[in-house]
Amino acid sequence: GRAPGGGRQGSGRAPGGPQRRAQGGRPTRSAPYSRGKVSGDDHLANTDVQTVAASDNPVLKVKADSKPNAVAGAICNVVRESATGQPPAVVATGPAAINQAMKAMAIARKYLLEEETGAVDFLVQPRFEEDIRQSSRVCFVLSKLPRPLPREPSEDDLASKEKTDFHKLAGAMAQRIRDGEKVACTTKGPVPVLIAVKAIATANTYLTDDGKDVKFTVSIVDLENPEIRDATSTYMHFALVVK
Length: 243
Prior knowledge:
CATH architecture: 2-Layer Sandwich
Order of helices and strands: EHEHEHEEEHEHEE
Largest sheet: 5 strands, mixed
Structural class: alpha/beta
Radius of gyration: 17 Å
Mean pLDDT: 79
Distance between the termini: 29 Å
CATH topology: Translation Initiation Factor IF3
Strand order of the largest sheet: 1-8-9-7-6
Number of helices: 5
Number of strands: 9
């Protein structure tokens, strides 16, 4: 059977719109998700996936023109093969590349949750290498989990849009976490996705003194678009996980 929490789901509406359940499609599993080498995949520093996964620095690089499905295949392989204490990472620079990276992680997560030999899940933690106010270069560190962490979209989810102030969004996330609430953010588009990622990274710094470590899972969901009557759109759903 299918593990819960994976892939594209129809679960209501995006924040601000009337509730409606949409039908999500299920892509067909293809060769890039098999074990072994990802031949010719320039997202890997080394095309031998096992070597990359076992190295001290297993990093996948994503560009604006990277194909999410191809990157997802590489992520699946590296997460499967990752050694304990050697978390793989995904590096992207700029809104377009970061958006592609998020799509790839969501697709990879869907397939890992559907593994016939047992569902695998992973958490993501964004780390900006420069001043977060100006930088759009981010390293996403992936942490392999032995069991799924399902989280459905909710009408109470936060939203990230083109002009959202990521500091304010981070403050809202941090406050909800302090209040013991579940926190998630729904968004779509390269710039709003970057804002959401910056907000999650900033919320983590806000909560350092609280002894909390913030990561997230990412999914692709079909929700009603509040800006277009009787229409659905594809959104990125970030569910925050606090350790």
